[in-house]
């Protein structure tokens, strides 16, 4: 399909704004009985039939159908931030299964207005048809926000949260406001028909004061390019742990929907979903990116509602890729430690070591390699509890024995570790004595890492 360019979109928005029935100072929002999402059949996808449901902080479980012509008994609180949820393509024409939980979580996390955009009718039928409806939907949301601003809300208080195709809808809305809205969060922004689109045709960093994206299915339904100020590539942005246990439709969408589950978990759980800037996911796993000094000046970004994701910069760089790993299920957060082994002397072959952290409730492992004629190897160990709660470490030497050549039966060296982010060597914890590892069994040693 052909996308309208940014200038054309802005002109179209202006024309429709002037000619729309949504004009005049009498326009506002009124409280109505509780309403729910529509259900559409496959054949109704050409009918956009948009509805906006307000879930106010005063009654967060009741979706009030927004009226644009009556200001009596308004439930919209102009002093609060407003979260606008925009779902994506709905293959079966049903209400998103995650929407109620998402709304409840937002209200528990902060005192806010929540507006859910119901465009199930326009999102049903063939995916290309839903894509064709994106611009029209974005214009309707543009009008909605205009009325919120007339009520007294500020542009910076508006936070658009778009899922899949809804992320690009949010991007167009942000373009209509020339990037002045407060925040846009894209939860696995859709890839089909958007990966090769220009920034004017999709979500991009210029669409709001802060734009972030969470990528979980970049090899299938999600987009593989960076589209925000900060782009989180979860487990590399592709295959998510725990998703291979499903069959059928759940299997197909599991990776794609993980972004929604992660965001909800980040708002519900106390442990942080922290990420680190790096050139690639593999470099992150190889412990080549241990802090957030470049470009975030030591403030690592976190998924959630923190301002600018917790990054302390007056001006954010664009399209910074950040990486993290997760558990297979909620709570998804993991903690990270740099692990190192220093050989007492160089060897003429590669040295492989498995390192395992143990606590009362968890066992987490990684493998590191020390190149030949080198004395130190390091890696990243992701674990489910903080390092200071780990009780012991198990070090296992993995000799590479082949029938024509036997590896050494033992190695000697020193083990060191530090929780991430590692800004300096003072955070390193090393076992006091050299350890001798054999290829027969792992060596268990107590850990006593201080909590920071």
UniProtKB/TrEMBL annotation:
Signal peptide start-end: 1-23
Compartments, as annotated in UniProt: Secreted
Keywords per UniProt: Calcium, Disulfide bond, Glycoprotein, Hydrolase, Lipid degradation, Lipid metabolism, Metal-binding, Secreted, Signal
Recorded GO CC terms: extracellular space
Top-level lineage group: Eukaryota
Catalytic reactions of this protein: 1-hexadecanoyl-2-(5Z,8Z,11Z,14Z-eicosatetraenoyl)-sn-glycero-3-phospho-L-serine + H2O = 2-(5Z,8Z,11Z,14Z)-eicosatetraenoyl-sn-glycero-3-phospho-L-serine + hexadecanoate + H(+); 1-(9Z-octadecenoyl)-sn-glycero-3-phospho-L-serine + H2O = sn-glycero-3-phospho-L-serine + (9Z)-octadecenoate + H(+); 1,2-di-(9Z)-octadecenoyl-sn-glycero-3-phospho-L-serine + H2O = 2-(9Z-octadecenoyl)-sn-glycero-3-phospho-L-serine + (9Z)-octadecenoate + H(+)
Keyword set includes Phosphoprotein: no
CDD domains: Pancreat_lipase_like (cd00707)
Annotated active site: 164 (nucleophile), 188 (charge relay system), 256 (charge relay system)
Binding sites annotated in the UniProt record for Ca(2+): 202, 204, 207
Domain Lipase: 24-332
A GO MF term: metal ion binding
A Pfam family hit: Lipase
SUPFAM superfamilies linked to this entry: alpha/beta-Hydrolases
InterPro entries: AB_hydrolase_fold, Lipase, Lipase_LIPH, Lipase_N, TAG_lipase
Entry's Gene Ontology BP terms: lipid catabolic process
Keyword Magnesium: no
Family from the record: Belongs to the AB hydrolase superfamily. Lipase family.
Protein name in the entry: Phospholipase A1 member A
Underlying gene: PLA1A
